Amino acid sequence: MKIYILLLCTLLLPVTANASTDIQQLLQLVDYIGVDYSGAVNDGEITHAGEYDEMRDFSKAIFEQSQSLAASARKAEIVELSRQLIIQVNTKGEAADINRISAAIRTILISAYDVAVIPARGPDLQRAEQLYANLCSSCHGDSGMGNGPAAINMDPPPAVFTDYNRYRERTVYGLFNTITQGVTGTQMKAYPQLSDIDRWGLAFLTGSMAQTDELEKRGAAVYARDGISNIPLDLAKLTTTTPAQIEAGYGTKGLALMAYLRSRPDVLFSRGNAASLEFAKEKMSESLDAYRENKTKLAYKLAVQAYLEGFELTENGLNAIDPGLRASIEGSMTAYRNLIRDSVPATELEAETLRIQMLLQTAEDKLNRIHLSGGAAFASAMVILLREGLEALLVIAALAAFLIKTGRRDALRWLYGGVFVALSLGAVTWWASTYVIDISGMQREMTEGIAALLAAAVLFYVGFWLHSKTGAIQWKEFIEHSIQKALNKSTLWGLSGLAFIAVYREILETVLFYQALWIQTENSGQHMIFTGFLVASAILVVVAWIILRYSTRLPLRQFFAVTSIFMFLMAIVFAGKGIAALQEAGKLALDPVSFPTIDLLGIYPNIQGLLVQLALLTIAILMWLRPNENKVQTS
Question: Helix-strand-coil percent breakdown of the chain, rounded to 5?
Fold first, then answer.
């Protein structure tokens, strides 16, 4: 049982890295060639033999590593581009062609292998300046000119961040990758001791050292006038696109806007709802493009991302303003995924995409006009905790009442131990998701779905076990012997594990919603979020006290009967929510039916969830009606 709990806890930990070290190293090589090739070859002539030999070695390594990549729908494209890169390097091709190929490889790698290319939150550039002074200036110089005291006789010399030509070919993600991985054969070491956010801060800082104040001012004016509506520089494009690429596509205005956003990345992070909905619209467009190219699996995956990583983050705020619009968008995005599953003509999917894009734009307009007031933030904060915490509380309170009623107060420490571990891990999850990593929507929904289904199975079994004992004749003997025997150490580990599952799965959702709520609330009203949290916590404490005080007053036989019914019902609720979470993650099909949604009971209008719940309900009723084998006729 201990091993079971350990494996279960491991399963429930969110995945914190989207790209393997091998892919990050491959991206680093690709970025290196794109930036440094022009220093080795010019107009078909070798200008630096040592650099050129490196380019040949790196292009060969890129080709070999691309062949070793995990299976992917776009792996063949990467291998072919890598082959073209070798040919261009070996024939001393133009730097522009090398840049084009390396940029294409980088873009496909990031897309095909879900590489995380944006920080979890806005980097602190003031802290980055302090880190640069302490860790980088001795080699790269105080202003990035590569003239630090340690740079004397260094071979190869340190990078010059103020070199405008190199700046034009470097991505912020490439700089982040170099800081993370280091550069083999040079004095540039890796900095794994720094947090992701600190490394991103250094990447943005060094990636903007070649910019002039004038260029950044022009970019600020472009952003103030148009935002990113005309030049779609969202966070992902800001970190993975070079200034040269942006200038080629959008001219000097695009170049200026990129300079401004590199120097002020917090601008995009503070956009809150707008950023989430822009992400949703972008992924919907990418999904449609993939579908047109007959890449059905990729289209479905992108549609799931549009919902989980984009729209879902705004649901609570939108629900407070226009619940009808929220429901309409949610239903439309579900219908869109079903159209992909049904392999409808592309024209039909285009029409649905256009409708969803219009709905998302309407939502963005409403959310941008209206920030949540203090009162709305209070109500939302209270409702979130009550909604997410009530299920876990009911399970924990029922189990605690059972232990108290059967005289096993000594076992309460196992139950509360599971709760404590879940709360502690929840605090770590909140800290990590705020300051270190970005927990994706799919990871969150997968964790919640699996946890809910495991909890449903355990609760159903507990309900069955309690019901089977309601017919026992000698209750005193049953309590003194059977319960003591049943609640052995192995079972207590199981209780602790159930408590952990019930609480931690709710914490994951609560953390996400509170983070989104904080962004959506006016600065003057953010303190009301804490007030709503405290009031909801007090209500939950009162509910727990009522359950423990009055449920334990029931006669033992009736207590077992009532508790078994409650466990059956909670199992049905958890099963419905588990199925729904896996459907949102795109792991289970979703066939909608005309049926009311009752979120509190885990009832959602789709065939899969309703059939599972109906099956559990049928089994529970049959078990309840079946004559209890322990019941004996007495005169």
Answer: 75, 0, 25
For residue 150, is it within any domain? yes
Give yes or no: residues 101 and 229 share one domain. no
How many CB atoms neighbour CB 308 within 10 A? 21
Give the Cα separation of 111 and 208 in Å (integer): 25
Q: Determine phi and psi for 247, rounding to 5 degrees.
A: -65, -40
One domain for residues 310 and 393: no
pLDDT in tens, 19-74: 444 788 888 888 888 888 888 898 889 998 888 988 999 899 999 999 988 888 88
| Nearest to 604, CA basis, from 310, 233, 330, 200 | 330
Which among 555, 605, 550, 554 is positioned nearest to 576, based on CA atoms?
A: 605
Q: Which two tokens stand for residue 559?
A: 């207590």
End-to-end Cα, the chain, rounded Å = 43
* Mean pLDDT of the 183-189 span: 82
Mean of the pLDDT values across residues 242-271?
A: 87
Neighbours of 532 (CB within 10 A): 24
Q: Which residues constitute the domain of residue 414?
A: 374-625
- Report whether pLDDT(347) > 70: yes
Report the DSSP pairing between strands 41-42 and 45-46. Answer: antiparallel
Tell me if residue 603 falls in helix, strand or coil: strand
CATH number of 25's domain = 1.20.120
10 within domain boundaries: no
Cα distance between residue 588 and residue 497, in whole Å: 26
Q: How far is CA 198 from the centre of its chain?
A: 20
Q: What is the mean pLDDT of residues 619-634?
A: 64
Dist. CA 98–CA 30, nearest whole Å: 10
Residue 42 per-residue DSSP state: E
For the segment 129-158, the average pLDDT, to the nearest whole number, is 91
Residue 138, classified by CB atoms within 10 Å of its CB into exposed (0-12), middle (13-18) or buried (19+), is middle
User: Mean pLDDT across the stretch 508-537?
Assistant: 76
Kindly give, in sequence order, each residue whose CB lies less than 8 Å from that of residue 239, ignoring residues fewer than 6 positions away. Answer: 117, 118, 171, 172, 173, 176
What is the arithmetic mean of pLDDT over 386-411? 80
Distance of CA 470 to the CA centre of its chain: 45
CA 15 and chain centroid, separation: 9
Given pLDDT bands bounded at 50, 70 and 90, which one contains residue 596? confident
Residue 182: CB partners within 8 Å, gap ≥ 6? 188, 189, 190, 191
User: If we measure between CA atoms, which residue out of 52, 33, 165 comes closest to residue 100?
Assistant: 33
What is the spatial distance between Cα 299 and Cα 287, in angstroms, rounded to a whole number?
4
E strand map for 36-184: 41-42, 45-46
Q: What pLDDT, on a 0 to 100 scale, did the predictor assign at position 84? A: 95
**Residue pointed to by tokens 């095909």:** 112
Q: Which residue has the tokens 């390396």?
A: 102
Q: Per-residue pLDDT averaged across 100-113, rounded?
A: 88
Secondary structure of residue 338 in the 3-state scheme: helix
- Is the same domain home to 321 and 415? no
DSSP H helices, 13-48, are 21-36
